Amino acid sequence: MSFFKFPYLFVESFFYLTYCYMNRRNLLKNLGLGLSAGIAGTTLPSTAAQASPSYKKGMAPVKITKVKAIPTCPHNIELIVVKVETSEPGLVGYGCATFRQRAHAVVSAIDDYLNDFCQGRDVDNIEDIWQTAYVSSYWRNGPVLNNALSGLDQALWDIKGKRAGMPVYQLLGGKTRFAVDCYAHAGAGTIEKTVENVQRYMDEGYRHVRIQLGGYGSASLSEAPDFKEAGFGMPDDNVINERLYLKKVPELFAEVRKTCGEDIELLHDIHERVQPMDAINMIRQLEEYRPFFIEDPFSPENNGYFKILRNHTTVPIAMGELYNNPHEWTDLMKERLIDYIRIHISQIGGITPAIKVARLGEWFNVKTAWHGPGDVSPVGHAANAHIDLAIWNFGIQESVHFSDLLREIFPGSPVMKNGYMHVNEVPGLGVEVNEQLALKYPLPAKNDYNWTQLRKNDGTPVRP
């Protein structure tokens, strides 16, 4: 089609282009006048605060002035807490960075590195601080740096809650349950004593009990090993008799079910102490006793065995206590190879990544079962519980009982009642720190915590 064959199209196009050109000139002229007027002091908005008067009514920015570690060791258990101080008088936050096996290294990471990194930053920008701190060392995903980062992260959420006048669970979406259901630990050197402990916890109101025989791997059932007679290893090294352990655990489940009935939910922790195929065979034997879950069947180095396990049993599996890298758990969750994600909140970097893990699990029907041992501070247990209260796909939580001394050092610690954990219903995480009292229990100069040093009869090291 040609304009010369249809002249009216040419005329219309000419006038349309002329119209656009003139309007463009007028627009540029008006913009020029507006900019000139702005320079002369007129009210042309130039910032969000000017454009929205309500923005000015928000809280004034608060800056981080100091980040420091509060190390303490009551009951010979090393605990590390991070304290974040701010430019607002009296406003501080606390987070858990406990890593017993490398406590002094965590203290150094906090005091010598995070303190300088954080000073002057806005306390409200938790995600930004987490992401930039995470890569500030370039190499990442190690337990020392992750624990230091977790203490900082939890402390910032504590401050966020205090600033908002809300418990942290409210900032995460509010409660989806009235309290946190927990499991108790019934471990003993004999089957009979373990059964008695299960009954005692049932009387206290617990609906879930983890049963162990002689500690992890039933180490206490083993006799004097050959490696010690040969003078191999260290004098305090522990020993495991794998055959005895694999034989006794099904017997334990059978007796507890027979004596305590079907209503109580039973859990067990293999703690990666046996070879993968042996773990799979034992879990198959336990299927008739309907475990609530079996925990940590394989070491992180053996993640590839989860597909084999899933193809051979319907027993629910919990995994993740040793994980600190997202690559260790994302495929297991995505492929539905585990039923409970059991990562350690301070091991992975705090509340910020834990919420992301929980949300991921929701879409793959993976529930949470955060690790909550005795070597986590009350601040860390509170962080676990606040997440537990808010997320939909909560599964179960490890119970904890704090001594009078710990409650004095950490006022506001969570409490256990009828098998449920309850948080302190105040703004933030709800746990404060009596710093002067905490420092009366300094860290030991040397770590003598050797429960990870486990060997077979011939002295071969066993991975926990």
Could you explain how this protein is built, in words?
This protein is of the alpha/beta class and 464 residues long. It has two domains: 103 residues, 2-Layer Sandwich (Enolase-like, domain 1), CATH 3.30.390; 293 residues, Enolase-like C-terminal domain (TIM Barrel, Alpha-Beta Barrel), CATH 3.20.20. It contains 17 helices and 16 strands. Strands 4, 5, 7, 8, 9, 10, 11, 12, 13 and 14 form a ten-stranded mixed beta sheet that branches. Strands 1-2-3 form a three-stranded antiparallel beta sheet. It has a three-stranded mixed beta sheet with strand order 6-15-16, with no helix packed on it. Strand 8, helix 11 and strand 9 form a beta-alpha-beta unit. Helix 4 packs antiparallel against helix 5 and helix 7 packs across helix 9. The longest helix has 33 residues. The protein is globular, with a radius of gyration of 29 Å.
Strand residue content: 5-15%
Q: What class do helices, strands and sheet pairing give?
A: alpha/beta
Number of helices: 17
Largest sheet descriptor? 10 strands, mixed
CATH class of the largest domain: Alpha Beta
Radius of gyration, Cα only, in angstroms? Answer: 29 Å
Which stretches are poorly predicted, pLDDT < 50 over at least 5 residues?
1-56
Helical percentage: 40-55%
* CATH third-tier fold name of the largest domain: TIM Barrel
Please tally the β strands and state the result. 16
- On the 0 to 100 scale, the average pLDDT is 88
- Span from first to last CA? 81 Å
Label the overall shape: globular
CATH architecture verdict of the largest domain:
Alpha-Beta Barrel
